[in-house]
Amino acid sequence: MRALPRFSRPELIVSDRRIMLWAAFGAAVLCAIIQIVLYVAYARGAASLTELALNLLLDASLPLVIRFPWTVGALAVAVTTVFALAPGVERVAPPVAAPIVVSFLVVLLPWRQAFACAAVLAVPAIPIWSPSWGTLYVALSATALPALIALYLKARSELVRSLRKRAELADSERHLLAERAETGERRRLAAELHDIVTHHVTEIVLHADALRVTTRDDDARAAAEQIRLAGTRTLTELRDLMRVMSTGVRMSPAERPDDDTGGDLAALAAADRAALRVEGDPGTVPAVVARAVYRVVQESLTNARKHAPGAPVTVTIAYPGDRADVEVRNVPPRRSVDPTLTGAGSGMGLTGLNRRVTLLGGTFSAGDDGEGGFTVTASIPAAVT
Questions:
Q1: How far apart are CA 43 and CA 48, in angstroms?
Q2: What pLDDT does 324 receive?
Q3: Nearest partner of 377 among 160, 362, 205, judged by Cα
Q4: Cα separations (Å) of 339 from 158, 245, 303, 309?
Q5: Ordered mean pLDDT values, 10 residues apiece, the chain (385 residues)
Q6: Residues 195 and 312 occupy one common structural domain
Q7: What is the DSSP letter of 11?
Q8: Cα dihedral value 75, 76, 81, 86, nearest 10
Q9: Which residues contact 213 (CB under 8 A, 6 or more apart)?
Q10: Together in a domain, 368 and 309
């Protein structure tokens, strides 16, 4: 268990310094008002006027205690000494501002130095050369008691601050542990999902390959080949995704030849019988933008296939030089929607596209075109940082 804080000179933050400055200013004004009222009510000649002037001088120095604690402390000792030794001054008690000065010194100075200053201030306040029970009580009330109270409040404030910091650290550590546990659970679920999906997709690929070899129908053979190729691409992407999640390292270009651009857009559009139009040079954008373009087209075609079966789809990609613009538009569906097909998937495809494009500094929109169709647009800058 950490030991309690030692009372060294604290480094005040700006807000604490401002609060203490206002407190010192308010105390100075209050003390000055009290002393002026007492002087008007009980004025007894030049001696009272001298006492008032010395008290007002000490009051005026209170706002400076934040920056010059030693100077204000020395002034308080000097004024108290004048009260004790100067002839003709009728001293009944130390200066009214003396307890306030002692309290500020305890807060601003190391506690040993602050108590040494309070002890020095108590010598002329008693005074020890002509002590009495009355002067002893008043002097201790003006020096030792404020010092002890200020020390207690300072210790309590530092303890509360220390406990607050510990609570914040404990809360941060708890959040970190929760994030680590959540990350581990996500990895475990991803691995389990990978095993399940890989198993079933592999079965689909094997059956499609068997159908491609055994069938005599050319259309069935072509469809089986498309199914086999799509399943093979799915397995490759699953392996890439799992490698990123487990090690943070993507497959090398040798392991995955289409890793730079995400895939063949022409083949992707042809597989869905979509019309593809490309304007400009795709080489003007970096690989990360090319992959994002491929994912936007891929997810948009999947979305159209599920929600607008049989509807013609038009894919337009433009590379003006400083960005990549993508538009995928489909007309209203020509067949009824299959509830089983629309219910498949996570339902987060467009949300994921929006997040991917936004992270690259681009803009994304998806919605009805007002004519019963659906349009997905994305604009991704080429200068990706």
A1: 6
A2: 92
A3: 362
A4: 64, 32, 13, 12
A5: 43 62 81 78 65 79 82 80 62 68 78 73 66 66 76 80 88 86 76 74 82 84 84 74 57 44 80 87 84 88 81 91 91 70 59 84 88 89 73
A6: no
A7: -
A8: 70
A9: none
A10: yes
pLDDT for the residue numbered 376: 92
Is the separation of the CB atoms in 35 and 58 below 8 Å?
no
CA distance 143 to 354: 69
CA dihedral over 291, 293, 297, 300, signed as positive or negative: positive
Supply 70's token pair.
Answer: 């030693």
**How many angstroms from the chain centroid is the CA of residue 260?**
34
Q: What is the pLDDT of residue 155?
A: 78
Instruction: Give, rounded to a whole angstrom, the gap between the first and last alpha carbons of the chain.
Output: 46
Secondary structure of residue 168 in the 3-state scheme? helix
Count other Cβ atoms within 10 Å, centred on residue 270.
12
Domains of the chain: total:
3
Asked if residue 35 lies in contact with residue 56, where contact means CB atoms within 8 angstroms, the answer is: yes
User: Are 50 and 125 part of one and the same domain?
Assistant: yes
Rounded Cα distance, 237 and 255, in Å: 11
CB atoms within 10 A of CB 284: 14
Name 300's Cβ contacts closer than 8 Å, sequence gap at least 6.
315, 328, 353, 376
In angstroms, the CA 255 to CA 265 distance is 20
CB of 115 within 8 A of CB of 147?
yes
- Whether residue 172 lies inside any domain: the answer is no
> Is residue 333 within 8 Å of residue 310, measured between CB atoms?
yes
Q: Are 128 and 121 in contact (CB under 8 A)?
A: no
Tokens of 378: 């994305």
Amino acid at 108: L
**Residue 106 contacts residue 154 (beta carbons within 8 Å):** yes
Question: Which residue range is the domain that position 229 belongs to?
Answer: 180-247
Q: In terms of domains, do 240 and 279 share one?
A: no
Q: Which residues contact 296 (CB under 8 A, 6 or more apart)?
A: 326, 328, 353, 356, 357, 364, 376, 378
Amino acid at 326: V
201 part of a folded domain: yes
